[in-house]
Design a protein that fits this description.
about 75% helix
Length: about 230
């Protein structure tokens, strides 16, 4: 995906909309929030023929911070009002009732830290506010840490892109490797956590077996008689 062309095409409104969707909408987990923020910061350092820059860094930071914080609040509200209903159904491959109780206990103990750290983890940051709502994390506490995490994320990544754009000549030639590195660094904490958590590893393996097992079964043709 050419993030530079994407940002130029969708503009500020599209950029803020993507950040909002990835932060709080259930279907936004696949969106490239980290790399998008970094690239937007980089474009804020690229001069135009009129003497300005492609994007305004203050506008990028303020708009993305608001979109991220509001998005998380939407995710929390969804989890608080609707999410629990999914877990009240019979256990399935994706939803199990025991996860509600675990989520509630986890957020009671580590909620604030989780909301802040989840900001820097793809996929996790989409579901963290939803799970916080499902686990009934106290809203004032959630909102306080949501602001901290949203500001750190929406300020830090654009500033990194902006300063690299100013410090490194022709940094656009290295933009793709830098973006890939950012994605890998963002995914690493989640991957390490999964590898260290025996129960989570087992759950993922069982889910994979269930999915691929059904695939093989569906693709197996019955043998003809005789």
């Amino acid at each position: 995906m050419d993030l530079i062309e994407l940002i130029k095409t969708v503009g500020y409104i599209g950029l803020f909309g993507i950040i909002f969707a990835e932060s709080g909408l259930f279907v936004g987990f696949f969106l490239p929030g980290d790399s998008l923020l970094f690239t937007a910061g980089f474009l804020s350092s690229v001069p135009t023929e009129t003497g300005g820059t492609v994007l305004s860094l203050p506008l990028v930071i303020v708009g993305c911070a608001i979109a991220a914080i509001v998005g998380d609040n939407v995710g929390y509200a969804f989890g608080r009002r609707v999410g629990r209903r999914f877990f009240q159904k019979d256990d399935s491959l994706l939803f199990k009732k025991k996860y509600v109780l675990k989520a509630q206990a986890f957020y009671d103990k580590h909620g604030g830290k989780t909301i802040v750290l989840a900001r820097f983890m793809p996929i996790v940051r989409t579901f963290a506010p939803i799970v916080a709502g499902i686990g009934e994390m106290e809203y004032r506490r959630f909102f306080s840490f949501n602001i901290v995490g949203g500001l750190l994320w929406a300020v830090g990544l654009p500033l990194a892109g902006y300063f690299l754009g100013n410090l490194i000549p022709d940094v656009d030639k290295y933009l793709l490797p830098i973006v890939v590195l950012i994605v890998l660094l963002s995914v690493a904490p989640t991957a390490l956590h999964v590898l260290r958590d025996a129960e989570m590893r087992e759950g993922l393996l069982n889910a994979a077996k269930g999915i691929f097992g059904r695939t093989r079964t569906a693709g197996t043709k019955p043998k003809s008689g005789g």
